[in-house]
Design goal:
175 residues; disordered C terminus; eight-stranded antiparallel beta sheet; 3 helices; alpha+beta; globular
Length: 175
């Protein structure tokens, strides 16, 4: 199965759009604050491979990031893609926005959207049963992400999170 992937630069009109087996990425400068930014957008298969394809895409987008950021981003993305497949309808789309800050930090925003679901978003992350085999996805996202949100609806669901590392993020999780 081929996946549609689009990458874009931070400058208007600089978009690449193509079909590929693997997600591609484009680095660019152009933010007013001097930050370097890359956006990767890729369709995910609607099926059990969604999480695997999403993890591979994140690895491409964050190829030179610190190992702990890459690990957290891959785990979060896997959980969001799994939730989209399990609870939503096609299409599934992953967007990874990466911004290198001029002060030396890195900010990553990960968004997974799907075609919607009939269940409302939970008002808080429910605690899974101790012996349950599932139900920990949003708990994991909440624990690892600096910020996150989930918006559900019958016409689309959006799960989003932000990770920050480097000069704006300290080891104890404070900013």
């Amino acid at each position: 199965m081929r996946h549609r992937t689009s990458t874009s630069r931070s400058r208007l009109g600089s978009v690449l759009d193509h079909d590929t087996e693997r997600p591609a990425r484009v680095s660019a400068s152009g933010h007013a604050d001097g930050a370097d930014a890359t956006t990767l957008i890729t369709d995910l298969p609607y099926g059990p491979k969604a999480a695997e394809v999403a993890r591979e895409a994140v690895a491409v987008a964050l190829h030179d990031a610190e190992a702990d950021l890459l690990d957290d981003a891959r785990l979060i993305t896997s959980e969001l893609a799994t939730n989209a497949f399990a609870s939503g309808r096609p299409p599934l789309v992953l967007c990874v926005d990466r911004r290198s800050q001029t002060a030396g930090g890195l900010e990553v925003e990960i968004t997974v959207t799907d075609g919607g679901c009939s269940d409302p978003a939970p008002s808080s992350t429910p605690a899974p049963e101790e012996q349950a085999e599932s139900g920990r996805g949003l708990v994991i996202v909440e624990a690892l992400a600096d910020a996150w949100s989930l918006t559900t609806g019958t016409h689309g669901t959006r799960a989003w999170c932000r990770l920050r590392r480097g000069s704006h993020h300290s080891p104890d999780g404070t900013h």
